[in-house]
Design brief:
This protein has about 160 residues and is of the alpha+beta class. It has four helices and seven strands. Strands 2-3-4-5-6 form a five-stranded mixed sheet. A two-stranded antiparallel ribbon has the order 1-7. The radius of gyration is 25 Å and the shape is rod-shaped. It binds zinc ion (2 copies). The site of one zinc ion has 7 residues, from loops.
Length: about 160
C-alpha cells in the first residue's frame, strides 16, 4: 500500500491513523518461512508544528523450531517506530528520518524492511530450554534420557576393569 501524505504535510495538526496488515509469509529466513501470519502495524502519522512524524508499533509472530530442542515455537515480537517523515533529506540522519519521495509512503516496503531488520538471531522455546541429548536425540525438556546415567567416570571404569 502506498499512502499519499500531501494532505498531512500541508495541514498543520492533521493526522492519519494507521492500521494495516501485510502478508510476509513468502519471506525466507535461514531456510524457513517464519512469518506465517500477516505482520501488523498500528499507529499514527501526524503533523505537529510542521513536523510530520510516524509513531507506530509493528507486531508479528515468528514461527520456527526452537534453536536448542527443535520443537515448533511461536514468539511474538514488536518493533517501536518513531520517525520523522521528510520529502527530501537535508542531513544524513537516515536512522530517524524516513524519506517519502513525492510525499508518498510505501508502507509495504517500509514494513518489510523494518521487520526483516528485526528478525531474531536467537529463537528458543523458553530461556530454560535444555535442548536435546546429542547422543540419543531425546528432548531433555521432557525428561532425562538414559545416556547421562550410563556415562561413567573413566577412572571408575578403569577401577571396575581392575576388580573383574
Ligand atoms: Zn527448546
Ligand atoms: Zn540421550
Amino acid at each position: 500500500m502506498v499512502i499519499d501524505l500531501k494532505k498531512i504535510f500541508v495541514n498543520e495538526n492533521s493526522s492519519l491513523p494507521l492500521s494495516y496488515a501485510l502478508d510476509l509469509s513468502d519471506v525466507e529466513y535461514m531456510g524457513l518461512y517464519p512469518l506465517k501470519k500477516p505482520v501488523e502495524i498500528n499507529g499514527v502519522i501526524e503533523n505537529k508544528a510542521s513536523l510530520v512524524r510516524l509513531g507506530a508499533e509493528i507486531s508479528y509472530e515468528f514461527e520456527a523450531p526452537c534453536d536448542r530442542c527443535g520443537v515448533d515455537t511461536v514468539k511474538s515480537h514488536t518493533v517501536l517506530v518513531d520517525k520523522s517523515l521528510a520529502a527530501s533529506i537535508e542531513g544524513d540522519d537516515s536512522d530517524t528520518i524516513l524519506l517519502v519521495p513525492d510525499m508518498k509512503l510505501n508502507l509495504d516496503e517500509f514494513l518489510y524492511s523494518e521487520v526483516i531488520m528485526s528478525l531474531p538471531m536467537k529463537h528458543i522455546c523458553t530461556e530454560k530450554c535444555k535442548g536435546i541429548c546429542t547422543k540419543c536425540g531425546k528432548n531433555l525438556n521432557q525428561g532425562k534420557c538414559d545416556c547421562v546415567e550410563k556415562e561413567i567416570d573413566p577412572r571408575l571404569a578403569a577401577l571396575a576393569e581392575l576388580l573383574k
